[in-house]
Amino acid sequence: MAARTGKARAGETAKQDAKAKLLEAALTTIRTKGYAATTVDELCAAAGVTKGAFFHHFKSKEALGVAAAEHWSQTTGEMFAGAPYHGFADPLDRVLGYVRFRKSLLTGGVPEFTCLVGTMVQETYETAPAIRDACARSISGHAKTLEADIEAAIAARGMVPGWTAASLALHTQAVLQGAFILAKAKGGADVAAESVDHLIRYIELLFGAGTR
Amino acid sequence: MAARTGKARAGETAKQDAKAKLLEAALTTIRTKGYAATTVDELCAAAGVTKGAFFHHFKSKEALGVAAAEHWSQTTGEMFAGAPYHGFADPLDRVLGYVRFRKSLLTGGVPEFTCLVGTMVQETYETAPAIRDACARSISGHAKTLEADIEAAIAARGMVPGWTAASLALHTQAVLQGAFILAKAKGGADVAAESVDHLIRYIELLFGAGTR
DNA sequence: CGACACATACCAACCAGTCGGTATGTAAGT
DNA sequence: ACTTACATACCGACTGGTTGGTATGTGTCG
Questions:
Q1: Could you report the per-residue pLDDT of B5-36, keeping only the tens digit for each?
Q2: Domain total for chain A?
Q3: Residue B30 lies in a domain
Q4: Burial of B31 (0-12, 13-18, 19+ CB in 10 A)
Q5: Residue B16's pLDDT is what?
Q6: Which residue is closest, via its CA, to the C1' of D19?
Q7: Which residue of B has its CA nearest to A143?
């Protein structure tokens, strides 16, 4: 089992196998049960590796939490970077395209569409600053990717709003995170989708959709 | 609750003392560290009672979680029922009054203004159905108190909106819950307040404020 | 007395983290 | 070519402290 190596370019592919599997297991397990209720043994079992492998790659459970948040930032970042809405010519269409894209992601089971870092930060914000900061970076970094388009949409319309592009970008994240909580409480994606619909309507109203 | 029997007067002070203190300790401790990370021993220490008292009043940790959610519903319910915004004549003013009141509550430390049930449901929605349902009832019940005013505001303006009063009421809860997550991640109430400002602006736009 | 509200003592299961060991690859010395 | 030395990746038994929960005792009040 250990020696999946032994072929071609040395252990490049098989290497990091346990680490990647642990990170992947962390995403689903923590989103399902939360960070505190997820045990190291459970993660190891889900990933099909041993405890030795866990503590070889992560110096503590907290370190795994930080790594999981960073892994989440990276994989979701790549996913959004490759999404089709970036192709729209009008910056407002790109902003609305983003939110509609988020809405389209609201399918399947609750643990599949909810947010890892939103879940983790609730439990760790006071007790594990390293995880909290990693989660904060993830959310802020993601919101940042919206700012330029919002700013451009404001400029294109010659608007001088009483709010900032940054605050609207963060507000979209607040609505999504809150929608996830509602989905968890009510056991389905429908409530979440309705809340996202209100967000879409808000952005359209803000930019005077229909009058443009 | 059940044991409020006995005399209407007389030595009532000490009675139920442990239960009330445990519930109170649960509110602050769970909001700070989350449900899973909060231990029974810790709760007992914070409440100044022993473990025997804990398991005398609650048959399990999960039962405490359910009771805490119900206690939360009741105390916050009384607080909102007594809030001044109910006195406004215009139903829209009552709706906006509610949201502005929520914004005014965003002071002090993060564990002081965040929501118990929003925190708990994230960790327990898959693993403790009884707690999840208690949290769902708390959120839905609270949202319900807004519906009549939203409905009245719609009727007063003769509107036929493409959304429902129920969905807007739930959306306000989503924004608040999401704002709490942002506050936890960024370590302050400011982000939360800005998100609530966007919610206020949305409601004003929805009802055509300025043109009424 | 007997029910109730608590306290004390205790336990089995579980937890994060440790440690000595093995398998494999790599690079330098000879 | 072959050893020596070191690094990486992983294994799994073990540990000491913690956890939720229990069994039983004690004081008080009606």
A1: 332 222 344 556 889 999 999 999 999 999 99
A2: 1
A3: no
A4: buried
A5: 64
A6: B39
A7: B182
